[in-house]
Amino acid sequence: MRLPFQINAMVGGAIIGFLLLVALCGAFWTPYDPLGISFSDKLTPPGPSHWLGTDEFGRDVASRLMAGAATSVWVSITTVTLAISVGVVIGVTSGYARGWFDRIVMAFNDALLAFPGILLALGLLAVLGANKYGIIVALGIAYSPSVARIVRGTVLSIREREFIAASRVTGNSEIYTMCRHVLPNCIAPLTVLATSMFGWVLLAESSLSFLGLGVPPPAPTWGNMLASARPFIAQAVWLAVLPGLCISITLLGINLLGDALRDRLDPRMRGRT
Amino acid sequence: MRFIITRTAMAIPTLLIVAVTVFILIRMVPGDPAALMLGDNADAESVARLQARLGLDQPLPVQFAVWFRHLLTGDLGQSITTGQEVLPLVWKRFLVSAQIVVVAVFLACLIAVPAGAIAAWRQNGRLDVSLVSLATLLMSIPTFWLGLLLLLFLGLKQQWLPVVGYVSIADDPWRGILYLVMPILTMFLHELGVLLRMARASTLEVKNLEYISHARAKGLAESTVLWRHAFKNSFGPTWTLIGLVLGNLLGGIAVVETVFTIPGIGRLLVDAIFGRDYPVIQGCMLMIAAIYVVVNLVVDLCYPLFDPRVAVE
Amino acid sequence: MQSKLLLVGCLASVLAVPSYADTIRAALNQDLRSSQPGVNRDGNSDTVMAHVAEGLVSYDRGGNVQPLLAETYAVSEDGLTYTFKLREGVKFHNGETMTSADVKWSFDYYLDPETNWYCLEEVDGTNGLKIVSYDTPDDQTFTITIDKPDAMFIDTLARTDCGGTAILHETSLNPDGTWNKPIGTGPFMFGEWKRGQSVQFDKFDDYQSRSDESDGFVGKKDPMVDSIVFMAIPDAATVKIALESGDLDVATIQESDVEEIRANPGLEVGLAWTPVRNTFILQTRDPVLQDVRIRQALAISLNYEELVASVTEGLGKVNNSPVYDTSNFYTEVQQQGFEYNPDKARELLAEAGYNGEEIVVMCNKRAAVPSFNMSVLAQQMWQAVGLNVRLEVLDWPTQLDKYRSGDHMMQATTYSSRFDVASGFEQISGNKDDQPRKVWENPDALELIDQALATLDPAKRQPLFDELHKMILHDVPIIITHNDVSPIAYSTEIKGMDPWTSPMVLWNLSRGE
After folding, report:
1. Does ipTM come in above 0.85?
2. Cα–Cα distance between B135 and B193 in angstroms, integer?
3. Where in C222-301 does DSSP place strands (E)?
4. CB-based contact (8 Å) between B271 and chain A?
5. Are C317 and C308 in contact (CB under 8 A)?
6. SS3 B180
7. CATH architecture of the domain formed by A5-30+54-269
8. With an 8 Å Cβ cutoff, are B35 and C121 in contact?
9. CATH tag, C2-248+493-511
10. What does the pLDDT look like over C294-312, one tens digit per residue?
11. How many whole angstroms separate alpha carbon C407 and alpha carbon C427?
């Protein structure tokens, strides 16, 4: 029994489409002010006036989730894009150049990889300033070495293949060869990595928040909502479950879409499914 | 043999870069260990005096030279806040974390790699979708939440396991294990999701390669193809990723150790960061980097064992 | 499979909980800094080490200095010589009897710059006062001579951050002069310390207690359990679960957990009122905030009742005065705080020509302080009167750096406790050229604070504190919102709990049935 490929992609696409819609909407309009404090409405369970309840400051959870979607999605997308771009440039040049250049770049790359993300993020955040741009750059830099490593590995493994040699022999420039033949072969591993990374960013921000180093509240993100809900697990379980659910569903959607995309983009798989 | 030597030699510049970067990075971060130790009431003179005693009033290059000279003799200095020798301290804490990470990743691999291969084999089938969904769910629960849920259920509701504390396995093996069950379970569940997705992806890649189709064309049973060719071959890339994951885990374990009050290297590092305990931060980072480098060295050296393609080359 | 799991579970529960019949397990949010009282220390270490080591004098519940190892003490007419009559037959943990020679050894040890005693500057002339000499006229008498009369000297000896100037036996040091472990006279002996995990104190059977009623750090101490284990548990959620599962007996908890813990039949909650002050500090040298009208507008646009009720979950009380509300000096005058008046705040802002200049408030998310929560709530109230306030959330070391250098507009910060009220004023006041961290540099106020520091007589101090209180409400270099109330949860099996300012003082507790 096989689900047709399209359904897979459609479910993923629908989830992501909905997410983007909510994020777009949340950036301009929410039912309540996501920062509006109301002492009398503290920890109200989900009900008619507040569909998804309120938090420990009496702020409307639905509004915060919407506003949080905008921030979280934006931060995640830019971080992943940054990490991938930096990683691809480093990985491709290093893998293609080989020799001493490759060695030096990879020594730096490994050194960066060997840092736990926490310290790198803390150090960079302190230098860059604790705001969402700081988080984007810090996490982007923290994640780019794994991209570089994977891309370089792929480049190394295929650069001696016949079709690359052929491309070169026919007089195509190195850059053209790289773009035309090398990069597409990196897409499969990169899609998997990028979709995982999207999740890592959402979670990393949450964990940093738990350890006291996260994106500064009160502006909501799913990550810091999840972290700050922790003390209220007994009184207000919706505070944790809702942002958690948002993260899970988003990840699921991204993974489904990512797998489908990979199948489409990967030359080796083209036309097989 | 030559490969082993060059590969080992390459680790040295990596560690060197780590040493320098950590040293600079941590000093760029605002915050002063002397002021933190003395608290909000201390006057400027006392802080200056303590700084002088700790050698923090020296210019940075001098501080680095002193630290580096000691480092070459295997001396990582003393903790600013507690006065303990850094090397034994970091090593002891590392061993605590290592037992959690190694057991958790080992168990997770045991399940995730075959499960990922099966999911890939049944790509887009019901089993695949369920496995991927499960993996995604596990991945998307932060470890501090997973840990809390385990504490509530296994510790408080069922009272099966102790909630706080830590006993070294060397002192009391049985109780030692009890204290480790929940942290290991937390890490295990989280890594299960991550590794399953990785294993699935790498199996998918080999699945469609020519020689697999060839094997299939030869008329071999689907299960034989899966086992003999696909699974074995997919282990190579997964193996590389395990190396990456292990390194990352040592950084990420801080959260688990905070939740379960485990005296591991992650918590040591986070506490040291909040106390701006420079020697301890440097010691932890070097230790983590060294372990990471060693693990990846071993991974690279063992790679031919798992990937026939490389062995042939 | 099911039954196998169950079996494992039963086994686990039997083996997991060894008998703690005669042990009290308490939680600290952080491990001890060191076992050296008054040297490498923090608030946790101070209270915990008071179980092991005692000084000549210490505080009662009201924050007054009372004799502890001294039977009595007297000050000479000229205020320069302090004579301590020591109690007879006090034993150290190694069995030796304490004499004035041990006291002298301890003072030699503290005054040696190599020791790095936290309070050395208070008595070596750096901050004014200097110990000229000390002597042992006989085995039971110890005298100290200082260079000028100072009401604060005896308070310095008692201060918890000075380690209570604990009297130690010389075998606390190794033969080579390095620190070994505290050999003191306290009701508990320093036992096994697993760094980063827990420290165990064992009952001292030969403890010689004072006979007067137990009162704070002084009076009768009657160790009844075999041992106390202090466990370092950083995560508040874990502490709560450990209390409920019976893995912990005593712990301070978050205000938001009080209701839940109270609902648990096996647990009780007490409240400890402390002199700790939660505040917003204002940089009076800032271009915007140097206008006193803007500072006043900031102060009166806060609805303190609502703010404090929300931050402390209804447990705390508003107190705008630097005089803490459980102090003897807290009178009707101090009860008169800022008047919440948003309309007047708008007027003041208009008068000052405030035109939406951004005001940045630094805060941090440490679990033990309300800095972040206070800031979120206050931001909302400030914005309501048209103040453009932005929060900057920092990690604590960074914020402390900014605090020490005065490099900020506003900070939500919490001051560690000072029992003496004059010393509490001194904590926030001083010339910023010398000490940039000080917030109040009104010269008239500094004059009055100096007077209060030199005065012993409470009747003469009260008018000074009244005057200072009124001045600070007008100047608004600091907006004090409330004194900390610290909820402490304990198992119903624990008898004798009577929480006060230092809730982790556990020497008179016992385990009932």
Report:
1. no
2. 4
3. 227-232, 250-252, 267-282
4. no
5. yes
6. helix
7. Orthogonal Bundle (1.10)
8. no
9. 3.40.190.10
10. 999 999 999 999 999 989 9
11. 18
